Amino acid sequence: MSTLVDSTAPKGSNKSFSVMDASRRVKWIAALLVITYALVATVPLVWIVMTSFRTPPDSIAYPPKVIAEPSLEGYVNLFTTRSRQTPEYIESLGPPQTWYDELVRSRNMVITGPSRFADRYWNSIVIGFGSTFLTVFLGTLAAYAFSRFKVPLKDDLLFFILSTRMMPPIAVAIPIFLMYRELGLSDTALGIILLYTAVNLSLAVWLLKGFVDEIPREYEEAAVIDGYTRLQAFFRVVLPQMRAGIAATAIFCLIFAWNEYAFALLLTSGEAQTAPPFIPTIIGEGGLDWPAVAAGTTLFLLPVVIFTVLLRKQLLRGITFGAVRR
Amino acid sequence: MSTQTLDRAAQRVARATPGGFARRVTGLSDRMVAWLFISPTIFLLLAINIFPLVWTVYLSFTNYRANQPGREVEWIGTRNYERILGSEDIWGYMQVTAHFVFWTMLLQVLIGLGLALLINRNFKGSSFWTTVILIPMMLSPAVVGTFWTYLYQPQTGIFSYVVNLFADVGAVDMIGSVTLAPWAIIIVDTWMWTPYIMLLCLAGLRSIPDYLYEAAEVDRANTWQKFWYITLPRVLPFLMLAVLFRGIENFKMFDMVVELTSGGPGSTTELASINLKREAFEKWRTGYSSAFAIILFVTVFGLGNIYVKALNKVKS
Lengths: 326, 316
What we know:
- The complex is a heterodimer of chains A (about 325) and B (about 325).
- With about 325 residues, chain A is mostly helical.
- Chain A has 16 helices and two strands.
- Chain A has helices spanning about 20-50, 55-60, 75-80, 85-90, 100-105, 115-150, 155-165, 170-185, 190-215, 220-225, 230-240, 245-260, 260-265, 275-280, 290-310, 310-320, and strands at about 80-85, 110-115.
- Chain B is an all-alpha fold and about 325 residues long.
- The model of chain B is unreliable at about 20-25 (pLDDT under 50).
């Protein structure tokens, strides 16, 4: 099969499949296969989002219902704690005040308060942005120093990064758990932020150093000759040019912190727990409240999906450890 | 330009420049700036990466139990290590882990490379569909494990339903079955991370200049020869890099599997990390699990080193 265009074939889009020249046919098949894979791979996600809008009985229907009446029960259950009451007691409370009250009462339950989901979600946001900021801040400074100055251990940096990523998180958690217990950092947002920062820092320095290396030194040297100090030259000249690298690193760190589970599970409980360890517990006693789990999952995955679509290029550079530079 | 001449030049200029701040700040020589910039990072890495590692090594030689901090800590030498290396169960968990790593890597390489080759044809909309394919790998593995529990429900989950559309096998219990559970986790991991391998292969494919293919055509090379002699050698370093990163991550895998199967049924999907968590944070055998952690680390480190040497050879 040659990729050279068959010059005897008529040009134009309205020809039958068999007459198309070979390269067009290959592209068509490639597109078909890739789109099929993409659609199949998306089905689980679409199904989960759909499940979040089902009623609990519908979500465990057999055979699985594709079309069903939508309901916000999953989301209501996600954000509230409820208790089962007798119909008489519910009657005695008077008419429901809000639409979600009404929904919950129709299942013979009464809202007793907010659930911890919003709390956990907020913790994820705080810890995510906190650790990202700290990592990028320290990483940028260190990357600059590694790039511009003769620092000991410079060449071992990549080796060091790879080795720190070889320890299973559980293994790292054992001494950290003991350490934090002594230092009073257990179950604190600060503790987790420091931990996430330390975990990502070597990689961040590696990524950012790659960016700094690409900025010619002449700019800073010129600034220093003009009377600026090193510090001023760094802030005025180098930092603005590192924007792309900082963005790539920041997104990588944010997604890591957002998705992280093992450390959050082992080192937090009541105060600083993030969403990932919490979401599996939404299932509830009966093991039936799949719409609520689906709702929590949907809300939690949504920002990440948006990020992926909007910031794809920066993302790629981070997660492939700088190998993809497009 | 040496830093000394720069320093002197900067100082001379600074002295000529009015304003107290400029004069004071020139005191920060290059070396001071370098250390100022690096020390927070070094400190954090020492405190949270290095020191705990050293402490773990120390703990591995003791019988410390974290839930009994008042108890006497005895130095027991290499007894933890002997127990682990001689334990049948541990070898079982390592086998489960190896099975997981092997099959996920194999499947992801085949599918990922295939997808990359197809996407490299640059049909219309390929960029959009690539972004769609990327989404699964950006998700939290723990949350993915949780919702795949729902999809894998034998009676009411769509996985079993779809399988039965193709072959009438009755309710498929992926999570509860001893034979199927290892494949359940392999399927989910492949679903999540095939895009990663695909991305790196795509980067490799895009780095191959067209003129190589054109030259091959002049020599009347067929498709297979073009693939074997041009495409594959150029993609191989990227492919191997992807396998290195994902291989290491899958060796350490915890989140997704613990939510999906909890290591069960029995211990058919009990990966090394899952057992480690059980020993360290449920049974509280801190000394023992520290030894296990060190053994795992050394294993990954050793295998990783061998692999990187092979990778460097391929690169040249």
